[in-house]
Structure formats: structure tokens, C-alpha cells
Write a structure and sequence with these properties.
Elements: E1 2-6, H1 7-18, E2 32-37, E3 41-46, E4 50-56, E5 59-62, E6 64-69, H2 70-78, E7 84-89, E8 94-99, E9 102-107, E10 124-129, H3 130-138, E11 155-161, E12 164-170, E13 174-181, E14 190-195, H4 196-205, E15 212-218, E16 221-226, E17 229-234, E18 253-258, H5 259-274, E19 281-287, E20 290-296, E21 301-307, E22 314-319, H6 320-328, E23 334-339, E24 346-350, E25 356-360, E26 362-363
Helix pairs in contact: 1-2, 5-6
Length: 365
């Protein structure tokens, strides 16, 4: 095998597929990136649960296929000089990599036995703009609990109905829901639960543009295709929690607030808590048309207040990280807060529409 490829292009391809590599995998092949040099270069990596493939144009002098250690190769490519990089096998186990005045060699493995990418054929298919899918993932992927004893809660549930997509992530303490209009699918209903970790990695690859992402689903596999990249993953098994039961139906306190004001106030309180004990709550004390925001720690305390449009009274404690995560996942100028009482969850919603819903369980004062 021999090819010549621009360093930036090579680096982008290697970084993309590296997200599917587990460097601790006991199988040496699965710690590597498979490179196929034909008319163009194809890069492939998998851990047998998540697979990533991307391709790039290059000058291929000699065709071939091999597997090279993903972590070492990635680190080397990042540190190569700008410009073209030449990649050439010099024996049955060694490859020479050169660029500018730099030349080095690495060992490689034959590609025989490397898993094939499991593609979705003849499944249900929908299309979504890259920027919209990126937002849906960004604003829900923080909510699942990676330490949960229920594997299904390590994922995001997607629900597709005709021209709408809903994504839900949750754990014992919070829930994040995002609604997104998508191009008409003609699908009456479709759902799946994808691993949150994979979606987080996918979001690092997606671009904030109007390019189309095709999502295909069949049996226990979902596939995302966009530009030159394909991502497949096995779906999480089990029954997802009935999230509708977690949404409070009764409301005794409701007010709207300027996003920047509440975000800055909560962020200041969270700083003090983070230097003490994360279990310390941020206190919302609502009375006389004012939202008083307080926290009391061994290192100090803070008091802030924001005028709001309610005559109701309520004092409730909320987890600092839970609250800040939810607020950071909001992209509107004003938001609604809703409460039933001091022992019931807090609801955070947009003033107009239903693009998102965040639920945060209260903390005991």
C-alpha cells in the first residue's frame, strides 16, 4: 500500500473514526483503524457495538488494506508537519510515514479478520438537517445516567411521528426532552433508544449546517449517514421508562424570567457550591413578586434576586449541577418555571412553543 494525502484531511478522518476505538480492548485488531486504499481512502473502526467509517480523496499509488494502532496513529498524524503525508508499507509488518523533513515507521497488522461494518438495508429511513440533529443531541445527551443499573437509561429515546422528532434522556433526578420539526417522513410512528456515549461522539462530528443526515433503522441497529461518514450502533435493549408519568400535571406556581438573568444568577451560586459540597442546594425563595436565589456553604454564601410575574409563594431546593445543566441546554431569551410545591419536580419550558422541557427533582432543604 502507498498513498499520499494532505495532513489536515488525514487528521480529520483519523479523528472521526477514532471515536469508535476502545484502547483497552483485549482484541488487538479492535484497537486499530482499518485503512483501505482503492480509488480513495476508507477508514474504519469498531468496538463491535459502535462502528465508524469515513473516506477521503487521496493519491493512491499502490492499493492495499491494513490495520494500524488507532491511538498511536492519531497522535502521530497530529504532530506531522503541514502539507502532504506519504504512507507506504515497507515490509509485511512495517509502514513508513513521512512528511516534510519527518520520517518514521510503525508496525501494522493485516486486515484479515477485521469485522465488517453492519449496514442497514431496507429499513425505515428519515432525513434531518445536520444542525437540527446536532441540537437535539446536544440538549438531551447530558441527562442519562452512565452509572445506572438499568442499561436502557444510558441512552436517548427517539420518537418520530411524520414530520416531528422527540428525544428524551433521563435519570433518577432529571429529564431532558427536545422536540424538533423534521422533513416529512411519511412514518406514522418509529422509536429507538441509542447509546448516549455514541450520540455524544456523533455530535462532535456533525456540523452546524443544512447538510442532510439520513437515519436508517432496522431490527436492533441504527445507522447515521452524512457527507463522507457512516455511523452504526446497536440499540439499547429493554423497556424505556414511561416518561409521561414523570411530567407534573398540577401547577401552583408559574413565572417567566429572562434567560440571561437566571443563567448568570444560578451560575454564580453553583460556583460556591462546587468548591464545597455538590449536595448543597440552590434555594429558590419566591415571595412578593421576587425570586430570591440563595445558597449557604462553609466557604461562603450568596444572595441574588430577580423580579418575576407571580404573587405565589414557595421555597424549594434544587441541585446546582442539575439546574445548571438544564439552563445551559436552553436557547431562548425567556423561559417558564413551574412548580406544584416544595416536594415536587421543577419544570422548565419555553415561553412559546414546546421545543424543550426540562424536569429537575427537588433537594431537601
Amino acid at each position: 500500500m502507498k498513498f499520499i494525502c494532505d495532513k489536515d484531511i488525514l487528521n480529520e478522518c483519523v479523528n472521526t473514526v477514532s471515536k469508535a476505538i476502545d484502547p483497552t480492548n483485549v482484541k488487538e485488531l479492535l484497537r486499530g483503524i482499518k485503512i483501505d486504499a482503492e480509488e480513495e481512502l476508507t477508514f474504519f473502526a469498531t468496538d463491535n457495538e459502535i462502528s465508524l467509517e469515513t473516506w477521503a480523496e487521496a493519491t493512491v499509488k499502490e492499493k492495499g488494506s491494513l490495520v494500524i494502532d488507532g491511538r498511536i496513529f492519531s497522535d502521530i498524524v497530529k504532530r506531522m508537519p503541514e502539507g502532504n503525508i506519504t504512507f507506504e508499507t515497507v515490509s509485511q509488518s512495517e509502514v513508513k510515514i513521512s512528511g516534510g523533513e519527518v520520517s518514521l515507521s510503525l508496525l501494522y497488522l493485516p486486515s484479515e479478520g477485521f469485522p465488517y461494518m453492519e449496514r442497514v438495508e431496507d429499513g425505515k429511513t428519515i432525513k434531518i438537517y445536520s444542525k437540527d440533529l446536532k441540537n437535539v443531541i446536544k440538549y438531551t445527551v447530558f441527562a442519562p445516567d452512565a452509572e445506572s443499573s438499568m442499561p436502557i437509561l444510558n441512552g436517548i429515546k427517539f420518537e418520530i411521528k411524520n414530520a416531528s422528532m422527540r428525544a428524551i434522556g433521563l435519570n433518577r433526578y432529571r429529564m431532558a426532552m427536545r422536540n424538533q420539526i423534521i422533513p416529512e417522513t411519511g412514518i406514522e410512528y418509529m422509536e429507538f433508544v441509542a447509546p448516549a456515549k455514541m450520540l455524544g461522539d456523533l455530535n462532535k462530528i456533525l456540523k452546524d449546517d443544512d447538510k442532510i443526515v439520513t437515519i436508517s433503522l432496522k431490527d436492533d441497529v441504527v445507522m447515521f449517514e452524512f457527507e463522507r461518514t457512516t455511523v452504526t450502533t446497536r440499540l439499547l435493549e429493554g423497556e424505556f421508562i414511561d416518561y409521561n408519568r414523570l411530567i407534573p400535571k398540577e401547577t401552583n406556581v408559574k413565572f417567566r424570567v429572562d434567560y440571561d438573568k437566571i443563567a448568570q444568577s444560578v451560575d454564580r451560586a453553583a460556583v460556591i457550591i462546587n468548591y464545597d459540597d455538590p449536595k448543597i442546594p440552590i434555594i429558590f425563595d419566591i415571595k412578593n413578586g421576587v425570586l430570591n436565589i440563595d445558597c449557604f456553604t462553609k466557604r461562603g454564601q450568596i444572595h441574588d434576586k430577580i423580579s418575576i410575574d407571580t404573587d405565589a409563594e414557595l421555597k424549594i431546593g434544587l441541585g446546582a449541577k442539575l439546574l445548571t445543566d438544564a439552563i445551559r441546554a436552553i436557547d431562548t431569551n425567556e423561559i417558564y418555571f413551574e412548580f406544584k410545591d416544595e416536594k415536587s419536580p421543577c419544570k422548565i419550558m419555553p415561553v412559546e412553543g414546546d421545543s424543550f422541557l426540562y424536569i429537575v427533582q427537588p433537594r431537601q432543604l
